[in-house]
Amino acid sequence: MKLLILGDVMGVSGRDVLNNKLPELIKKNNIDFVVVNGENAAEDGKGITKNIADELFNLGIDVITSGNHIWDKKETSEFIANEDRLLRPENLAAGSPGNGFGI
């Protein structure tokens, strides 16, 4: 199994690179599973929205990880509970929305 794990995607410019390069990279290298940190993928470089998460998933990303900026967009707490492919940090307080891991 070939994994591709990418660090922090920052804002529009980071998403543009993924849009322009990722699908070809996945195909060329026969990548089976892609993990990207997307907690700073929003336009202002802080947080992630549902539309951005969907955009990333449509590029072939299987899981989006996050960190301390996961809650910078208010809407995230509304959709993260229903999106198993968007992970919040595992070490957040009990009862935090979303999942800290996935199988």
Output the keywords.
three-stranded parallel β-sheet; 3 strands; 103 residues; single chain
Write the layout of secondary structure elements.
Elements (H helix, E strand, L loop, with lengths): L2 E6 L2 H18 L4 E5 L12 H9 L4 E3 L10 H4 L24
From the spread of the alpha carbons, the general shape counts as globular
Strand content: 5-15%
**Strand arrangement across the biggest beta sheet:** 1-2-3
Rounded mean pLDDT is 95
Outline the biggest β-sheet: 3 strands, parallel
Unreliable spans: none
Radius of gyration: 13 Å
Q: How many helices in DSSP terms?
A: 3
Class by SSE composition? alpha/beta
First-last Cα distance? 16 Å
Order of helices and strands: EHEHEH
Helix content: 25-40%
Q: Number of DSSP strands?
A: 3
How would you explain this protein's 3D organization?
- By secondary structure, the protein is an alpha/beta fold.
- It is built from 3 helices and 3 strands.
- The protein has a 3-stranded parallel beta sheet, with helices on one face.
- Strand 1 (about 5-10), helix 1 and strand 2 form a beta-alpha-beta unit.
- The two termini are about 15 Å apart.
- The mean pLDDT is about 95.
Summarize the structure.
30% of the residues lie in helices and 14% in strands.
